[in-house]
């Protein structure tokens, strides 16, 4: 067959075309929020078509809620939301990538939390630009046709430093999360800034897709105050809080696909209609963002879409359930029905029914350690079902699968039911290795056609029995015709892997279904052509079911040769191409330099802040007779902090005891007159709220004591005590607990002590206040692109482990270039550390952005830092990599080998704009 000449449609032209269409499908209906008696009578809002796909359509919409579900323009909407924290993906271009994936995988909403501390470096100062551009995020969500559930706090939890409260609030004398007027002034200012943006994107006004507003309202007085605030700011969408008629369902992390089924099916069985998958995408807790409750840079490794934006095995059941709720209207209003029991009581059954359509649903759960096969009464028949160990199934009876065809029962889960032209399509999913048994009520004998070899069927007493063994990553198709209708029913059977390559989509001209690629991002109809964009990893055949009149297909702008298949679909003649191989460069050309100049007695600290306060707003008591040493009281809220004390009258000093308070992975290093006293780490479980306290007792070595007497006896001037504290994060529930030094004691002498303190320099105007701390190199731009490191000595992090141990800070820098081909989305990671890096702490900076901290704990396992495209320059551009390494004197001054690793790649992706990464000036 002669291939036609390619007809290319550019991405910009496609986007303009897609912008004229209605993209995505809204989730309609609800499950009752309480156990209701089964009734054959219709409810107040009967089962019907769901609301249309959301968008900024310029039309006012009515949004309300009752005890069952949300009501959008008088239609029931069961929300299937996926949570995404924009602040954990510091590349605005990639917001579109993840939002499109959420929509493709069945979500109709995105739940968004906003971290106050990321936007506010100081009282009265707010920044909503760059990676903090809320307006851009909300526009992108509307373009991806996702509702938005907005949660701006002020307190959001989310394993963020202080639960999202800004660092400066710790020293503001305001009692957060109360009706304290001092706190409300700050909180109102924050919410007013957010609300001014959110109000412009409300779905009720037709100017966006913000559908719900979630609140941190611990008490009634707080709720009344918030309502007044929202009213004044023009926010009119429903407010969700602890006393709302509907409960916001938010199950915790799950380990695997089986647990995901148990958890989410259980929520469905108990009437969840406002359901949130937390986290749908975990992302990165970069910089000093993470709370002690989750200190790793990788946030929620159990997320359905991982940190590198790749699907995981936990995604399949979420995808299947999301598509079910969007495309099977019977599930829009299910109520509790009479109890049904399996013969084997290890299977627990919850029975639901739709009083409008007569459809029934059965949620089966097996918490035992063995697969269980049992009889279950469904649709008037005892059906043999098998539920795998510690797994769950969702089965149905009575579903109408298009014109005149009704599902009697099936041993596999329905995933979708839709009509495309004169074709009715129903998809069912199960686990690979099981046999699907589906029975259709057929008054007249049908004419089934096996389109794939696996299927078999029999017809008996008005029932068509279809049996299909489910194979790994394989779709089986059966076509059913009959004389009673001119519509054809196409049955699709898939296992988890094959279901992840089924993509329903809705356009103004009708629905389409696409099979084959790893992702379908958008679909648009233009004349006789359907234009598709998406991703492939390996070579994939493309099959498309479209409305009548569509004869041509383009994929990512390229026309693909296709023809009509036996399943009444358009099928490509040649597979879609996979992603080309990508080779990453080795990291070489490293240069290194030690710092911690602050340890030297002659270091000039005249510009440092004098630490002489006597009172504090902290919940940590100030020791009697000592000054306040807490870092927050002097404006240093993130990262490392240095202290220098001049000790007058200390020639007979024998020991120094330093008490300090940190978050997870904190440590303390001390020097006296430039000589190391040692490194200390807090032990024990902490206070349970994210704070670890410890006292480091350093006994001076004999030679240092002799040196003190020689230098500082008889008016020899003060000794200098230098202390570096890695103070780390505030606890979510103890934001005012001290960080840094808390007190100091001296034995052998009673010196007069004068303290000075230094932490992070002014917040980075682009990267924000959580990007850097108080290390010398950070204060002087060693982490930034453009810094002149030509005078540094050659040396790599791997070579450093063979060198003399030292206590202090060592920096490493290098540059590298990537040349990722156009139209390839490559996710790249940086692997840091090995088993010999115990005790090491290393901050990773990419183009000046702090990607997080490597911690060499007892196992000292390597950690992979995901480098988000946009911050990472992938198109033939230079990248600057810098590491700031803290070593304790007993470990090497380097974390070991550092290398780039390809975490995943796809042909497709979204266009990525570089994230602003200004370098050092001067």
TrEMBL record:
Protein name: beta-galactosidase
Keyword vocabulary terms for this entry: Glycoprotein, Glycosidase, Hydrolase, Signal
Span list, region Disordered: 40-59, 601-624
Keyword Glycoprotein found: yes
Substrates-to-products reaction catalysed: Hydrolysis of terminal non-reducing beta-D-galactose residues in beta-D-galactosides
Pfam families in alphabetical order: BetaGal_ABD2, BetaGal_dom3, Glyco_hydro_35
Domain Beta-galactosidase: 328-502
Record bears the keyword Metal-binding: no
Family designation: Belongs to the glycosyl hydrolase 35 family.
Cross-referenced Gene3D superfamilies: Beta-galactosidase, domain 2, Beta-galactosidase, domain 3, Galactose-binding domain-like, Glycosidases
Species, as recorded: Streptomyces hyderabadensis
Biased composition (Pro residues): 43-54
Known EC number: 3.2.1.23
Top-rank lineage group of the source organism: Bacteria
